[in-house]
Write a structure and sequence with these properties.
The chain is an alpha+beta fold. The protein has helices at 8-20, 25-32, 36-39, 48-62, 67-74, 82-88, 93-103, 133-155, 174-181, 210-227, 233-243, 251-257, 262-271, 276-292, 299-305, 311-321, 327-334; strands spanning 5-7, 45-47, 111-118, 121-128, 163-165, 185-186, 192-197.
């Protein structure tokens, strides 16, 4: 299975955690091939394989074999991009798990995920597909710690009732699992699962928003469909822009993300008979039309979602993108009140 790019926020959080445990920030950034400026760019992405190398470097520098657990514990929902915003908008934890099992491939490249009811409990089974035991174990640690952290953030609590079963033998740092995850953990089980009480499923996150959830789901679908299509640079740029949300990158930022000079980036896109501006306009038009079809969103709100601080600028841009149709006219044609 192909490696994918991860949000740069993953690398930023991992570096922060490792430095808090004694690693040299300068040395880690050098190992990661990153600059502070790149870490601060919310739209940047980071190759998965390089992230794994950074994790190993962090473990070596800190002497903490449990670094993957500690990293997962520190992940925030916003660090997951569109997927994280979709989760934040869910009406309850049951819906959170539905979204997770539906779109997990946006985050988990080498794993499969299932959720089932078992009496008065619900469990999520995590099955990493890597060949090496160390990789499978770290993938599991990252997922489980991140899952528990996400639910705690959603419910604004420091503790949730959960039980964990893991398919591999207890490592030398097994006690760190119980300390970091704050729940019972058993090893050498048939599979790796996280159990929650069924009553937790009806707990409501503070930021539940069904209107925005629908929009974020549409964007998740867009990302999934693009991931399954061809591997041309045009497709990758579209995926990158859809994930950018309200802060669309410049051509220079996009070129940097794809490790190219602006000149090479333009030429590569030209070879596919497209320009960066054309892709950007296509993505923004598609998102704008999605938002404008929703009667709960005004033209002003749509402009804000697309990163326009001045609605008049948005109107002019939409008219240009759509060959003469205004946002208001589009709404009248497609929205039934």
């Amino acid at each position: 299975m192909k490696e994918r790019d991860l949000p740069i926020s993953y690398a930023a959080i991992l570096v922060d955690v490792a430095c808090e445990l004694g690693a040299s920030r300068q040395e880690l950034l050098h190992t990661a091939g990153l600059t502070e400026q790149e870490l601060q760019n919310p739209n940047a992405r980071y190759p998965e394989e390089q992230f794994r190398q950074l994790l190993q470097a962090g473990i070596k520098a800190t002497g903490k074999q449990s670094l993957a657990l500690r990293f997962g514990q520190r992940l925030t929902l916003t660090s997951h991009g569109v997927f994280g915003y979709a989760v934040m908008s869910c009406r309850n934890i049951h819906q959170v798990i539905d979204i997770l099992t539906k779109y997990y491939r946006l985050l988990l490249n080498n794993a499969s995920l299932t959720a089932k009811n078992e009496g008065d409990r619900v469990y999520i089974e995590f099955q990493p597909t890597r060949d090496q035991l160390l990789d499978r174990q770290q993938d599991t640690e990252l997922f489980i710690a991140g899952l528990l952290s996400a639910i705690k953030h959603l419910l604004h609590t420091d503790h949730i009732n959960a039980e964990i079963e893991l398919s591999y033998p207890a490592p030398a740092y097994a006690e760190d699992y119980r300390e970091i995850l704050d729940c019972p953990v058993s090893f050498n089980q048939k599979s790796s699962k996280v159990f929650f009480p069924a009553s937790l499923m009806q707990e409501k996150p503070e930021y539940a928003d069904p209107v925005m959830l629908k929009l974020y789901e549409q964007q998740c679908e867009e990302l999934l469909s693009r991931m399954k299509s061809s591997d041309g640079l045009r497709v990758k740029v579209r995926e990158y822009l859809v994930a950018a949300q309200q802060q669309f990158p410049s051509l220079e930022q996009a070129a940097q993300h794809f490790h190219m000079s602006p000149r090479t980036f333009r030429r590569r896109l030209s070879d596919e008979d497209v320009s960066f501006q054309k892709i950007l306009d296509e993505v923004r038009l598609e998102l704008a039309e999605t938002y404008l079809r929703n009667p709960a969103l005004s033209v002003n709100h749509t402009a804000d979602l697309l990163g326009f601080h001045d609605v008049s600028n948005f109107r002019r841009a939409f008219i240009r993108w759509s060959d003469g149709t205004s946002p208001s006219a589009f709404r009248k044609q497609h929205v039934q009140y």
